[in-house]
Amino acid sequence: MSNRSLAESLKYQRKIKGFSQEELSNKTNVTVRTIQRIEKAEVNPHLNTLKLLAAALDIEVSELLPID
Known about the structure:
The chain is built from four helices and no strands. By secondary structure, the chain is an all-alpha fold. The N and C termini lie close together (7 Å). The model has no long low-confidence stretch (mean pLDDT 93).
C-alpha cells in the first residue's frame, strides 16, 4: 500500500464530508496529530485506526486504500 495514495484518499474523503481534522479526531478518538501525519504520508496507520476513520467518514476501509 502506498502511503501517498492513502494520505490523498483520507484528505479527499474528509474534505468532501466537510470535516476539519479536529472534527474527524473528535468523531474517532484518533488524535489530530495522527490524522495530520497520515494525511502527510508520514505514517502507516494501524488497521484499527483506518476502521475508525472509515466509520466516521461513513465509507468502507477499502475506499481509503486504493489498489495499485
